[in-house]
Design goal:
With 520 residues, the protein is α/β, with parallel strands linked by helices. It folds into three domains: 188 residues, Class I glutamine amidotransferase (GATase) domain (Rossmann fold), CATH 3.40.50.880; 189 residues, Rossmann fold (3-Layer(aba) Sandwich); 96 residues, GMP Synthetase, Chain A, domain 3, CATH 3.30.300.10. The chain has 13 helices and 18 strands. A hairpin with a 2-residue loop joins β15 and β16. The longest helix has 23 residues. 39% of the residues are buried. The structure holds xanthosine-5'-monophosphate (XMP). Xanthosine-5'-monophosphate (XMP) binds next to loops.
């Protein structure tokens, strides 16, 4: 455990909760620096004056599984404010002499809590109704309060939903104030850090940028780093961060699969090679990809062919560069959140993390993942701080297999050409009508059916173009965007009139689930 000795901070002790990074994120949003330390690695001697308060996270453990966690009780004697959340609340109560037992009624999901007493922690948290909806996720609960603790709020099933020991500045919360489902939850964290810990604002995107640059420099030293640049937000931000941190020791590989959006390769080269002066290796592998994909129509087979070839090309170029020690990836925290604990605490495993870009482990490269503790919107802010254009930062996601999975059936040069145009017109129209930023992701797809139409006095027999536009928080669930009829009319006319090969346009009105965002 090594803490930044100079900067005032809130120390978050991680007991393996899925939400620990969210606590850190809320504190960053409030403009304050925090550090997360695993309960296994915390050392009293390292808690110096810069630590202004401690938050104990939730976790999958039970306070009576003593052999599964370690927690030095001396932390309670440091005269520092402590806020325990969920498991943190239970362990804080137990260490102070209270009791914890399995709840009769496990609480998962939303519950109402009712105000019982005033507290600095809940200042301006409860409205006049003295009731708030909060997010509970626990099987155990405090059954007996320690001496000198009092109840601040209760729910029907949790008598001790918020508790405090005012003299010692110890607070316990049974629910999760860090998740957005808890109404006004951020206020509790804000009250704890500003009113109780009395820490001042000391953290911004600029500080974040400088810290990450320093960390990358110290991790890679004088070694060479390669990075796969796709032109998407995450890989663009990692590229620019590494460019600032290590300059010419960074080698970016941009592979043109032939399945990119219209003019994508021109834009990437212009931005990264010409404007940002990045060591960019442009690989035109259009022919290689299209010949491997010839006559393949099965979606999974397409994905595999593209993934494997991408890796082969990447390895080929990594060898050419020679003496490369690191591979940089734009992994974000949500990519890791359900797979493993990033601080080394024990977390319940929910699913395995699929490596970004699917690059193989046997390349023997060490990973540089500077964004792995950040969330998408934080990465976007960081990108702006790194002087990337708003256009790059706010782009809709684009999948690795590209247009291949927006073209059910076999892939041909003719179809790619048609689809690139349709997608271009659609996205351009969204921008022209001020809709692009209201939509999470939008694209055109080409369906493998031809239908009859009439243009002038002539019969046409051409492809069907599908438009998809969705709203979403994170791509896990989605709803279709409700366009006005006039917009749909405009774009439909534009596509049919401008592109030879399409005579009909349909709009996809399914949500996810049951559909997915992409077609394949
Ligand atoms: P689905 O289609 O699964 O898409 O609802 C969810 C989000 O993931 C993107 N996506 C991918 N991104 N490689 C990527 O980098 C892929 O293979 C891939 N498949 C889907 C998709 O565009 C959407 O944003």
């Amino acid at each position: 455990m090594s803490l930044d000795q100079n900067l005032d901070k809130i120390l978050i002790v991680d007991f393996g909760s899925q939400f620990t990074q969210l606590i850190a994120r809320r504190i960053r949003e409030l403009g304050v620096y925090s550090e997360i330390v695993s309960h296994k690695k915390i050392r009293i001697r390292n808690i110096n004056k810069s630590v202004r308060g401690i938050i104990l996270s939730g976790g999958p453990l039970n306070v009576y599984q003593i052999n599964k966690y370690s927690f030095n009780k001396k932390i309670l004697d440091l005269n520092l404010p402590i806020l325990g959340i969920c498991f943190g609340h239970q362990i804080l109560s137990k260490l102070n002499g209270g009791k914890v037992k399995q709840s009769k009624h496990r609480e998962f999901g939303l519950a109402n809590i009712y105000k019982k007493h005033e507290s600095l922690l809940t200042k301006n948290f409860f409205g006049v109704k003295k009731i708030k909806k909060v997010w509970m996720s626990h099987a155990d609960q405090v059954s007996k309060l320690p001496l000198n603790f009092k109840v601040v709020a209760s729910s029907t099933n949790s008598k001790f939903a918020i508790v405090e020991n005012k003299t010692k500045n110890f607070f316990g919360i049974q629910f999760h104030p860090e998740v957005t489902h808890t109404e006004n939850g951020k206020k509790l964290i804000s009250n704890f850090i500003f009113l109780i810990c009395k820490i001042r604002r000391n953290w911004s995107s600029k500080d974040q940028k400088l810290k990450l640059i320093k960390e990358v420099q110290s991790q890679v030293g004088t070694n060479k780093v390669i990075c796969a640049l796709s032109g998407g937000v995450d890989s663009s931000v990692v590229t620019q961060l590494l460019n600032k941190a290590i300059g010419k020791k960074l080698y970016c590989i941009f592979v043109n699969t032939g399945l990119l959006r219209k003019n994508e390769e021109i834009q990437v080269i212009k931005t990264f090679k010409k404007r940002l002066k990045i060591n960019l290796i442009y690989v035109n592998a259009e022919k290689e990809f299209l010949s491997k994909l010839k006559n393949v129509s099965e979606p999974e087979k397409k994905r595999k062919i593209i993934g494997n070839l991408f890796i082969k090309i990447f390895e080929r170029y990594a060898k050419k560069i020679k003496n490369v020690s690191f591979l940089a990836q734009g992994t974000l925290y949500p990519d890791l959140i359900e797979s493993k604990s990033v601080t080394g605490s024990q977390t319940s495993k929910i699913k395995s993390h699929h490596n970004v870009g699917g690059l193989p482990k046997k390349m023997n490269l060490k990973l540089v993942e500077p964004l792995k503790f950040l969330f998408k919107d934080e990465v976007r802010k960081l990108g702006l701080e790194l002087k990337l254009s708003k256009e790059i930062i706010s782009r809709h996601p684009f999948p690795g297999p590209g247009l291949a999975i927006r073209m059910p059936g076999i892939i041909t040069n003719e179809k790619i050409k048609i689809l690139k145009e349709a997608d271009y017109y659609f996205i351009q129209a969204l921008k022209d009508h001020g809709l692009y930023h209201k939509i999470w992701q939008a694209y055109a797809a080409l369906l493998p059916v031809k239908t009859v139409g009439v243009m002038g006095d002539n019969r046409t027999y051409e492809y069907l173009c599908l438009l998809r536009a969705i709203t979403s928080e994170d791509g896990m669930t989605a709803d279709f965007f409700e366009f006005k009829k006039s917009f749909l009319q405009t774009i439909s006319n534009k596509i049919v009139n401008s592109i030879r090969g399409i005579n009909r346009v349909v709009y996809d009105v399914t949500s996810k689930p049951p559909s997915t965002i992409e077609l394949e």
